[in-house]
Amino acid sequence: MVVTYIYHSGYAIEFDDFSILIDFHSDVKRDEKTYWVKDYLLGKQNDLYVLCTHSHPDHFNPEILLWKKEKPNIHYIFSKELLFSQKTLPEDAYYLDKGDVYEDEHIRIEAFGSTDVGNSFLFTHNDIRFFHAGDLNNWHWSEEVSKKEALTCENNFLCELELIAERTDHIHVAMFPIDPRLGRKYMRGAEQFVKRIKTDYFLPMHFGECYDKANAFKPYASKHGCAYLAVTRPGQSFCLY
After folding, report:
1. What is the mean pLDDT of the chain?
2. Can you give the residue range of the structural domain that contains 127?
3. How many domains does the chain have?
4. 49-68 b/e with 16+ CB inside 10 Å = b?
5. Rounded Cα–Cα distance for residues 27 and 23 (Å)
6. What is the CATH number of the domain that holds 85?
7. What dihedral angle (degrees, nearest 10) is formed by the CA atoms of 170, 217, 230, 74?
8. pLDDT over threshold 90, residue 148
9. pLDDT digit string (tens) for 169-196?
10. 39 contacts 30 by C-beta, under 8 angstroms
11. What pTM was computed for the model?
12. Mean of the pLDDT values across residues 31-55?
């Protein structure tokens, strides 16, 4: 199994007989002549699942809906928020709201909530559990808002985190925001996540070009028995399991 950081919150996961692409924003080069998605992933013969957690333009690029013209075995599983926001049509995808489940012979996807819009996704293949947070995070903005407002934001996150923990106490691979814009306590949500739920591998997202700040989370992750996978460039791959 290979996990590849595409860009921003976009990740690709390749298995032997299918692949998953989550929250595609923009493509990146795989080598001098080809791109990761439009050339490599779309060119593979096996099934491709395209997941989208919500309609924000840094998580949803409408270009993805054009791919079905060149790849018939593509499956779109979106948050129902894209439908509500009128960014997509009912026939464009299979839609999940919080609490909904999609399941077929390859994958099981459960939709959880977000502390922004849309959903986060817990998906399973061969008893390996993956979590993509979308925009679920402790968006406390404690240096910009009142203490009361910051605590409300934190409580909202902790409630969602508890719902996930009730479903599973072990996630093998987590993709989660580490956003330096939050100020000095920008890693707080990620800290709370790995402290509450046993996580084998942690991959950062939503950090822009601030690779060093995202990778500063490694010592805390290690303290909780979690292997932090340091991302240093778009298109970087990790072989797991």
Report:
1. 97
2. 2-239
3. 1
4. bbbbbbbbebbbbeebbebe
5. 11
6. 3.60.15.10
7. 50
8. yes
9. 999 999 999 999 999 999 999 999 999 9
10. yes
11. 0.97
12. 96
